[in-house]
Amino acid sequence: MVRLITHNMLTCHVKNCTKDNFPLVFENVELEVRPAEANLDFIKRFIPKLEWDALVQTARSIGEDSLPEQMPEDKATLESEEFLQKLHHVLMEIHVEEGQMKCRGCGHIYPISTGIPNMLLAEHEVGR
């Protein structure tokens, strides 16, 4: 399933595509919001692994604007239940069911069908 937590780690791996290959851009997506039990300790531990600017940019591109533009700097806000619940929603409950992800660098399209991204490359696209 493509959730924003997964999307935040995906880059284009087409041979010689090394510029503007992250984040992949969602296009023509169908979203589904699926409530999930929040594990706020997990979310809190995951924060350092996030590419915040990419997450916010991607969330906004699909109409989700609940996250602040900049990652909060103060520990109290980062650990507040309100902030962690919003982050949980964006990372874990928004599912991209259909559509595609496009690389800004080389234009390669990664289709998404029934929530599964096809990240496979043709042999000529694979770097050696």
From TrEMBL:
Protein's GO biological process: rRNA (guanine-N7)-methylation; tRNA methylation
InterPro entries cross-referenced by the UniProt entry: Trm112 (IPR039127), Trm112-like (IPR005651)
SUPFAM superfamilies per UniProt: Trm112p-like (SSF158997)
CDD domains for this protein: Trm112-like (cd21089)
GO terms assigned for molecular function: protein heterodimerization activity
Domain of life: Eukaryota
Protein family membership: Belongs to the TRM112 family.
Subunit structure and binding partners: Interacts with TRM9.
PANTHER family in the cross-refs: MULTIFUNCTIONAL METHYLTRANSFERASE SUBUNIT TRM112-LIKE PROTEIN, UPF0315 PROTEIN-RELATED
Protein name (record): Multifunctional methyltransferase subunit TRM112
Organism phylogeny: Eukaryota, Fungi, Dikarya, Basidiomycota, Agaricomycotina
